[in-house]
């Protein structure tokens, strides 16, 4: 078998509903989690037995719905700042079989009033929003993660930009790349978390709260 064969063998069998979402994301240039990264996240959540997830960055609701579909008793709170994407997420969630598992908020996650969340604490936090704000998202929402819970941070590769020498990164992207580097280094040095980087999808950083 080739590496592609193995990947296909163990990848999640997605329904037509999710293939439609993926086509919509491609056609409308909406960044959603890559299939291999999404499969890995769903599997890690399963191993963790995470029943509650807080997501920062809903986009069109793809990852929230994939997380819900993979575990019928899982509840997801998800926050999206962009109005158009929020409306798209709302439509996809309401047309799915998993609307009862998801609460969706239209808000800037850095200003969002935490008392609106249905739950006071979560088994997992998934960060997939503005890359230059990861540290701020982490600082605000990590306290809501239970002891032994896990924080998943996607797009650490930043489509390859974070792997380039800074001189080769477009100037308009350098601040974002620098902040992402600083975020990863801070988590590596944070003794309250056991962190591991997985080179799957666009780069997934997994941090277990001690």
TrEMBL record:
A Pfam family in this protein? Methyltransf_3
Instruction: Cite a single GO MF annotation.
Output: methyltransferase activity
What is the main EC category here?
Answer: transferase
- Any one GO BP annotation for this protein: methylation
Q: Keywords in alphabetical order, please.
A: Methyltransferase, S-adenosyl-L-methionine, Transferase
The catalytic activity of this protein is classed by the Enzyme Commission as 2.1.1.-
InterPro entries per record: Cation-dep_OMT, SAM-dependent_MTases_sf, SAM_O-MeTrfase
The UniProt entry, under CDD domains, shows: AdoMet_MTases
Q: Which protein are we looking at?
A: O-methyltransferase
